[in-house]
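Chain and backbone:
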Amino acid sequence: MLKIVKWFRSLARSNTRLLLVALLSLFLFAQASDPSKCAAQGSCPEPAAYGRQPYPDELVDAFERAGTNRLGDNGPDLPRIWKGYPPSQAKLVAPYVPCILLKAIGYTESTGWKQFNADYGQYGYTVISSDCGYGIMQITSGMGGGAGFEPNRVAAEPAYNIGTGALFLIQKWNGLDYYVGDNNPHVVEDWYYAVWAYNEGYVGPYNNPNRNCPDSNPDCGTAWNPFRPPFDGTQPRRWYPYQELVWGYAANPPAYLGSPFWQAASLTLPPSQSITDPPPTHIDTPQPSHGSCSVVYLPAVLKNYPPCAQPIQNGDFEAGPAYWTLGGLTAISTNTPHSGSYSAWLGGYNNANDTLYQTITIPSTGPTGQPVVNARLSYYWYMSTEETSTLNDYDYLRVRIRNTYGSTLREVERVTNRSTKDAWVYSSFDVSEFIGQTVQIYFQATTDGSFKSSFFIDDVSLYACEGG
């Protein structure tokens, strides 16, 4: 410390003005290095948080869970989403946002998926833009509170920030009077208008792909030209509407240390000439169309994954009991659907012994004639109970793979009155050992003589996928 003091005294004797400039520069640098004191303490409603910036591969799971409504307590509550066109025939189904869109939007909003102003693995303050956008998904609206999510968690938690982005996208989808194709949230291309509105707030003129090049753009010879090349991440972003940036990043993922942030997906844009001014309220789904997230969520024909067969029929019970064999007092009910209008209801009375099964053949050859290399059974279950014991199991839902003679080959899950209650739970299991076999997908609910439990099943699927 004494040497530093002597150095400053020497500097002051030789050049007092230089000393003042140096001290002022140090002060300004100290102020500017703390984002909580420059961005969020001004006009922005929520202070910056201090946290660790995750590596890209640490964030992939959060994007996948947010898109499939599996963040739980790590994200905000997501509303059910409209599915179907025309609107008079639409129904509310389980929340869903294509994961590829969340990932590409996250990168479009915050290069590098940065939640904090820090290198990967290091600590810093929340990224806050000049218009008060927070973190990876650049959440702006509702950060003053009262919008159905927690602003402090948007600033502090990367997963919660991503989940709030999913919330906003669903709100845009549900609130727009613009539709693509069958208005199917599982088809990425059907989100064209919702992605447009995520950036602009509504389907307005700014992101219309056929608008005139703005006077402020010095590159009007190329920008907003109807013959411009697709965005691939190398051109100036100001040349393109927001949704074309997202589509472009989806097909051209960035990489960190040689590993891409996500698997490239060449999404299809609608023909630019079909987007008039004002835009049409309904356009066809651009082809080819795509799906996203894991193979267990989407029909194989919609995916950028190896082709899959789906031998289970009527897994959502929207066709009533068709293809299923019901035993006991099992019912197809409108009481507690996970998606659509129906689910299967087992139990709900004392001394129940209710069954539900479908006999299927898990193919050994896939849709393109190549060998099937993996098979996965997935479904949602819901349990409600009058039982109060936290120590003993009295009522059961057993999920089994049986042969055609009724012998159990494997019990994949056992749910009891002590399991998660009053909430839909997603279950998924590898059943590849049964490839090439004819089996029963078998559900059985049993209850004792008091304090009833009900078990509901919905959205049963089994994907048998080729290699690739």
User: Anything to note?
Assistant: The CA atoms of residues 253 and 262 lie 6 Å apart. Confidence is low (pLDDT under 50) at residues 1-41, 294-305. Helices lie at 2-14, 16-32, 56-67, 99-109, 151-156, 158-175, 192-200, 242-251. The domain at 306-466 is CATH 2.60.120.260 (Jelly Rolls).
